[in-house]
Amino acid sequence: MPVPLMLIMLSLSILVGILGKNRKWGFWAYLFASLLLTPLIGLLLVLASDSKKRL
Asked: Measuring CA to CA, how many Å separate 38 from each of 20, 28, 45, 46, 54?
């Protein structure tokens, strides 16, 4: 895989992690999920998950 494509995929995965930081799994879980699968599937996971419950 070319280096620019890897950097784009890493950047998108970090963005998915940032979007998921206030979700059920948190930043790291969504980051790793989007790195292992694809950023698009990671984004779908973020959109399908619930927000963290606030006390």
From this structure: 15, 15, 11, 12, 29
